[in-house]
Specification:
- By secondary structure, the protein is an alpha/beta fold.
- It contains 11 helices and 15 strands.
- The strands form 2 sheets. The protein has an 8-stranded mixed β-sheet. Strands 7-8-9-10-11-12-13 form a 7-stranded mixed β-sheet.
- β9 and β10 form a beta hairpin.
- α7 packs across α10.
- About 3% of the residues have low confidence.
Length: 351
């Protein structure tokens, strides 16, 4: 881009939650643009198509993964390979990928539960973000990449994609069994001349590590909660931010989409303890003192199953600032002291 658009904007590439093929919302993904550079948080199913509605491949600088649940990484390989040396549609510089490292063991609720977990998962192990990216480039897309290097003269894709496992500060005392989301201070994971990105651990039950991210620029600040139950850490990260983009769930509505049975019972426990209910999310925004609240990662993501008006009204009871439920391809522009305007295509966000 020769004349990049100045300013900071948030583009909701996917606003649906959960590993579901939905006709209404793509899987969760958000692009934050600052002066023509794009920073993507999560890569849900179908989000790559929406990325190209608001961003160019030449603008992509970094991808941040909140955690490794499938609905947050489905399109990661597509993001990394599609912009790799396609004429007129290419990365302009190496893309950095940041996400959870491999935990020292499979997470568990406590020491007693750890024995059950070990029996349940057997020899399976988890992977870090670096391993995940290497697997995509060197195994999943290996044949495609080899042929294109040989037939089209493309260079080594690792020259264009660099992955990083986020290192949790030792001072946090985090542990996959005893302290999956300890009270801690936000810590820096990325910085360039346009933005600083900080992270904090949040409460997504057994999903460890699970992060929320904050992106600060000269124009303002945006916080993306990731998947989390009500989290004091998320509140700490979001203090005074211009915009909080927070997940939201209606437990009764999502359970109504499942047939009865033991699998449904297990999922109910996970959902109840891993996500933020629509009647709690306004409390998070109010406690953090953010300028505006936008709800995304809508659960349920089955078409017509979520009453988004009810979600918005519940959040407004606890949060005095502007509230909006995001749809795919919404754009929120960060401008100081502007407020959250109505209108689907562009809203103004400010403290």
């Amino acid at each position: 881009m020769n004349n990049p658009e100045r300013g900071m904007s948030v583009h909701t590439l996917g606003t649906g939650g959960g590993p579901i093929v939905s006709a209404s919302r793509a899987g969760t993904s958000t692009a934050v643009k600052v002066d023509g550079a794009a920073y993507v948080v999560d890569c849900g199913m179908g989000s790559i198509r929406n990325y190209r509605s608001s961003c160019a491949w030449s603008e992509l600088r970094a991808v941040f993964l909140t955690h490794h649940h499938s609905d947050h990484v489905y399109d990661l390989g597509s993001f990394l390979v599609t912009g790799w040396q396609v004429p007129g549609e290419s990365f302009s510089a190496p893309v950095q990928v940041f996400g959870p490292g491999r935990p020292p063991r499979v997470p568990a609720l406590d020491a007693a539960h750890a024995g059950y977990v070990d029996e349940r998962v057997g020899d399976r192990t988890m992977a870090g973000t670096t391993e995940m990216v290497d697997a995509l480039l060197d195994r999943v897309f290996a044949s495609d990449i080899c042929i294109r290097m040989a037939d089209e003269g493309r260079s080594e894709p690792h020259e264009w994609v660099t992955a990083h496992d986020i290192q949790i500060p030792p001072s946090a005392g985090a542990d996959p069994v005893t302290a999956r989301h300890p009270v801690m201070e936000p810590f820096e994971v990325y910085r360039d001349e346009l933005v600083t990105v900080t992270a904090i651990l949040v409460d997504h039950r057994l999903c460890y590590p699970a992060f929320a991210f904050r992106i600060d620029s000269a124009y303002g600040s945006v916080v993306i909660s990731g998947d989390t139950a009500y989290s004091e850490n998320c509140i700490r990260l979001a203090r005074g931010a211009d915009l909080l983009l927070h997940e939201v769930m209606d437990l009764e509505a999502i359970l109504a989409t499942f047939p009865d049975g033991p699998t449904r019972d297990g999922i109910e426990v996970h959902l109840r303890e891993s996500h933020t209910s629509f009647d709690e999310v306004g409390k998070v925004a109010s406690a953090a003192g953010v300028g505006s609240l936008v709800l995304h990662h809508i659960v349920p993501n089955t078409p017509g199953a979520a009453d988004v008006r009810k979600m918005e009204e519940a959040a407004r009871r606890d949060f005095a600032g502007p509230v909006q439920v995001a749809e795919d391809n919404d754009c929120f522009v960060i401008r100081p002291a502007a407020g959250l305007a109505a209108g689907r295509e562009e809203a103004q966000v400010g403290a």
